[in-house]
């Protein structure tokens, strides 16, 4: 089974940076958009998931051209595009179901981030500590759990999530930008430095 190396991850710094920028934009948009509350939250998160899926597909295409591991990223990207589009157009689904789709996607992204950090343990250089990757994943999982348990808290937490979604996206976006900056430094360093202490 192919695991992403630190070199491959460093080469994707641009994708991480774009995700961070768009997360910040989405977080701010949730706060200022004139669209009614529930639809605002669902549509903007849908756009975020759609863009994230497209970026993942671009990463998969780059990996394919370089004869790297691409199919998992392709599947992940297609899922993101599908769930994002579904949340944007609604498709006749109730708001609660669309919120659960957001939670599912966010949880999957969080778990994948944590697993990637664990796989790279021992090979990560000091410039990219494991805790940064784990923190990003844990934050996503916590946010998804809050959405999942919403119906059991105050009838429906979806109507209370405006500030929480904004906080999550802004903090998550800033964290992604920090990770992207460190990955970019690794990508620009000599190959031996980018590989850190791993073999």
Task: Note the topology.
Blueprint: H1 6-11, H2 13-32, H3 37-65, H4 71-89, H5 95-119, H6 130-148, H7 162-188, H8 191-194
Helix pairs in contact: 2-3, 2-7, 3-4, 3-5, 4-5, 5-6, 6-7
Describe the structure.
With 199 residues, the chain is mostly helical. It has one domain (6-194): Serine Threonine Protein Phosphatase 5, Tetratricopeptide repeat, CATH 1.25.40. It is 75% helix and 0% strand. The protein has eight helices and no strands. It has helices at residues 6-11, 13-32, 37-65, 71-89, 95-119, 130-148, 162-188, 191-194. Helix 4 (71-89) runs antiparallel to helix 5 (95-119).
Pick out its properties.
199 residues, mainly alpha, Serine Threonine Protein Phosphatase 5, Tetratricopeptide repeat, 8 helices, 75% helix, globular
In short:
The chain is mainly alpha-helical.
Structural class: mainly alpha
Mean of all residue-level pLDDT scores: 80
Low-confidence stretches: 192-199
Largest β sheet strand count, sense and barrel closure: none
């Amino acid at each position: 089974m192919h695991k992403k190396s630190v070199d491959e991850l460093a080469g994707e710094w641009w994708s991480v940076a774009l995700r961070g920028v768009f997360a910040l934009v989405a977080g701010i948009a949730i706060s200022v958009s004139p669209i009614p509350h529930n639809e605002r939250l669902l549509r903007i998160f849908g756009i975020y998931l759609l863009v994230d899926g497209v970026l993942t597909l671009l990463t998969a295409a780059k990996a394919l051209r370089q004869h790297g591991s691409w199919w998992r990223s392709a599947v992940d990207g297609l899922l993101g595009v599908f769930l994002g589009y579904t949340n944007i157009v609604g498709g006749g689904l109730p708001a609660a179901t669309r919120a659960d789709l957001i939670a599912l996607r966010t949880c999957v992204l969080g778990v994948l981030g944590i697993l990637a950090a664990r796989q790279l343990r021992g090979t990560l250089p000091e410039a990219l500590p494991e805790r940064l990757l784990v923190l990003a994943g844990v934050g996503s999982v916590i946010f998804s759990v809050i959405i999942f348990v919403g119906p059991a808290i105050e009838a429906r937490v979806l109507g209370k999530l405006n500030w929480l979604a904004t906080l999550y996206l802004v903090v998550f976006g800033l964290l992604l930008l920090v990770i992207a900056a460190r990955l970019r430094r690794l990508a620009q360093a000599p190959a031996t430095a980018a590989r850190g202490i791993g073999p």
